[in-house]
Write a structure and sequence with these properties.
A five-stranded antiparallel beta sheet has the order 1-2-9-5-4, with no helix packed on it. The longest helix is centred in the first third of the chain and has 17 residues, at 4-20. By secondary structure, it is mostly beta strands. A hairpin with a 2-residue loop joins strand 4 (92-96) and strand 5 (99-106). The protein has one helix and ten strands; from the N terminus they run H-E-E-E-E-E-E-E-E-E-E. It is elongated and about 125 Å long.
Length: 168
């Protein structure tokens, strides 16, 4: 028979051994890293159709539409409108076959500034981007005057295609 002291010594050793089971010693090391992105100057543009209405040969027509611009914050831009099918900006024309109606596009409803490309007799519309989440709506004012359309004008639908360009 084992002595009581020996039994106690064995039991104590077993308890110490049991207490160390499952307590692995782990170490943790860390490293940091940078995450980067570069934001480039960028702009996007879209334009809504402009319908002037029904012309009867005696009435002036006027309507507005919008050009929508989104640019990165702080990006300066200018928006140009093309001549369409016209040879110059002074009198844009829309056509139905060989018949034409004279009209023009302006920066606002005072009709003081023809919206073009900044060349003689026209202005550009500019601004500074406020970020892609914030659209800037630019008003395009169209006007067709009866006094400029006194020639032979046939019935039908008249159209012109204008290109809105953003320079940044």
């Amino acid at each position: 028979m084992l002595s009581k002291t020996l039994k106690l010594a064995i039991a104590g050793t077993m308890l110490v051994a049991a207490g160390t089971v499952g307590t692995a010693q782990a170490a943790t090391k860390t490293a940091s890293f940078n995450v980067t992105a570069t934001v480039a100057n960028n702009c996007v543009i879209s334009a809504n159709p402009l319908a002037l209405g029904t012309f009867d040969g005696t009435n002036d027509l006027a309507a507005t539409s919008t050009v929508v611009v989104r640019c990165t914050n702080g990006t300066a831009y200018n928006v140009d409108l093309s001549k369409g099918a016209s040879p110059d900006y002074s009198a844009r024309t829309m056509s139905n076959g060989t018949t034409q109606l004279v009209y023009n596009l302006y920066t606002d409803t005072t009709y003081a500034n023809i919206w073009g490309d900044g060349s003689t007799g026209t202005v550009r519309v500019g601004g500074t981007g406020t970020g892609f989440a914030a659209a800037t709506n630019l008003t395009v004012a169209g006007r067709l005057q009866a006094s400029l359309n006194t020639g032979p004008v046939g019935a039908g639908n008249y159209t012109d295609t204008i290109v809105a360009s953003i320079v940044y």
